[in-house]
Amino acid sequence: DSNEISGNGTVGVNLGPWRMRADWQTNYQHTRSNDDDDEFGGDDTQKKWEWSRYYAWRALPSLKAKLALGEDYLNSDIFDGFNYVGGSVSTDDQMLPPNLRGYAPDISGVAHTTAKVTVSQMGRVIYETQVPAGPFRIQDLGDSVSGTLHIRIEEQNGQVQEYDISTASMPYLTRPGQVRYKIMMGRPQEWGHHVEGGFFSGAEASWGIANGWSLYGGALGDENYQSAALGVGRDLSTFGAVAFDVTHSHTKLDKDTAYGKGSLDGNSFRVSYSKDFDQLNSRVTFAGYRFSEENFMTMSEYLDASDSEMVRTGNDKEMYTATYNQNFRDAGVSVYLNYTRHTYWDREEQTNYNIMLSHYFNMGSIRNMSVSLTGYRYEYDNRADKGMYISLSMPWGDNSTVSYNGNYGSGTDSSQVGYFSRVDDATHYQLNIGTSDKHTSVDGYYSHDGSLAQVDLSANYHEGQYTSAGLSLQGGATLTTHGGALHRTQNMGGTRLLIDADGVADVPVEGNGAAVYTN
Q1: Please, are residues 356 and 370 in contact by the beta-carbon 8 Å criterion?
Q2: Nearest to 258 by CA among 224, 227, 298, 302
Q3: Are the beta carbons of 286 and 274 closer than 8 angstroms?
Q4: Distance, C-alpha 342 to centroid of its chain
Q5: Which of 67, 255, 273, 413 has a CA between 20 and 30 Å from the CA of residue 233?
């Protein structure tokens, strides 16, 4: 038997113009063995509570910028990120048109059972949710999230899938006559609030020259590591946006490491493209290519190399990444593709992809039927999870569908018949019954976007192997001098609106997702 409770969130207080925040994450797991012959039998309890990040920020209206202090992640449009403690001043991207603002990562995958999906970065949990069996997409991460994200999918049967994704960044463009910039300084930080290495500083800027052209560049480094970048971008209007840049790094390793000793110099070349095709209901969210010479190092790689006990895991050589989504409305077809390929100078390449094809059609008097096929591959730590998922669904009454779902690959084959019903804009549930690995399986999933919290419930039964149940709650509390309220929340630590309805209950307030009702 096993019981697990996990959570993460943000607490904070506003003091005048300052926003003081602290991120936390916790996990409690209790396992009990009923096998008297098991030499490791008995109870095992593991629990963890961590304040993962302390930070504060305030707006600088006269500069159209933001000042941030404390523990942070280097969100750069040029350089690879890392955790640090210090301060930064950066222009506010809210002044930009939507097509030039940051890109919010799109995370996709396939769950074999009802599963918990955790998104983390450098050990810090930034998102956690529960998903039903089948393909899933997470599209509500903020556009401030960048760099490499670690995805962990914990199935109800105990299996775990893990993989990394490299988030894309929009071409670093700026309106003509304006300048975007970031200035940062501090000390790199390991997990657990421990600093490593010496004091570093860095800056980057993008200048809108004229006629859609932008010139950008930056520098980053400390006593033994320096890197500099220069690039040019062009807003092609209806044809999208494109950018090209070159980064040079100089690294000095004073002691023998897995990367050698002495000075290393290398270059990295990158091209990126982004485009919305509104007329075709499609979007090339990002398409990019990066080539790095063998002796090129990022700041994060330099920090790892400075540790004499660090095992060399491979220098990046090439990275291809693309995200594409298109709806062929007249043909009733939609296509989604997420593809990443990494090659290295000293180890085998890695390829991750998720491709989904869907077709919507009518058959006689039955309208709005659909069939979808998903192929996927996720590789991490020399292990690959790959397979195919197929689904055929048809309407069943009002706001309900019945479906056949099959998942084949990576040693797990399952076939299920499902029933899905949307009760209203805020509530839906799903029931499935079938076979998994030649054993009967039954699972259910319920989701409700309430005014106080988002509630997800799940239950699973797998003949002869396990029975499980799960509960997920996501919400927040806001307390001001004018009053307080519990509420549903989308982005941890994000903007909130407190409304005085003069005692009138059930007034709907619409925004992102289902309406919230006054109490």
Answers
A1: no
A2: 302
A3: yes
A4: 18
A5: 67
Neighbours of 324 (CB within 10 A): 16
Q: Considering only CA atoms, which of 84, 98, 87 is closest in space to residue 65?
A: 87
Token pair 């039903």 is at which residue? 132
Instruction: State the average pLDDT over residues 349-355.
Output: 91
Q: 3-state SS of 220-268?
A: EECCCEEEEEEEEEEECHHHCEEEEEEEEEEEEEEEEECCEEEEEEEEE
What is the length of the chain?
A: 519
With tokens 């994450």, the residue in question is 25
pLDDT, position 68: 95
pTM of the predicted model as reported, rounded to 2 decimal places:
0.81
**491 has a pLDDT exceeding 70:** no
Retrieve residue 121's tokens.
């970065």
Kindly tell me if the per-residue pLDDT of 269 is higher than 90.
yes
pLDDT band at 258 (very low <50, low <70, confident <90, very high): low
What percentage of residues in the chain have a pLDDT greater than 90? 32
Please give the Cα distance from 463 to 459 (Å, whole number): 13
Between strands 333-344 and 316-328, the pairing is antiparallel
Q: In 3-state terms, what secondary structure has residue 97?
A: coil
Residue 215 gets which letter from DSSP?
E
Four-point Cα dihedral 415, 421, 427, 430, nearest 10: -20
CB 288 within 8 A of CB 168: yes
> Which residues, 6+ apart, have CB-to-CB distance to 287 below 8 Å?
272, 273, 274, 321, 322, 323, 324
Burial 167-204 (b: 16+ CB within 10 A, else e): bbbbbbbbbeeeebbbbbebebbeeeeeeebeebebeb
Question: Residues 393-419: what's their mean pLDDT?
Answer: 88
Report residue 449 as tokens.
């976007």
Instruction: Give the 3-state secondary structure of residue 314.
Output: coil
What gap in Å lies between CA 418 and CA 421, rounded to an integer?
Answer: 10
Answer whether 291's CB lies under 8 Å from 272's CB.
Answer: no
DSSP state of 195: B
Helix or strand (DSSP H, E) at 8: strand 2-15
Contact residues for 262 (Cβ-Cβ < 8 A; gap 6+):
252, 253
C-beta separation of 293 from 246 below 8 A: no
Q: Give me 215's structure tokens.
A: 């010139």
CB 418 within 8 A of CB 407: no
Identify whether the C-beta of residue 272 lies closer than 8 Å to the C-beta of residue 200: no
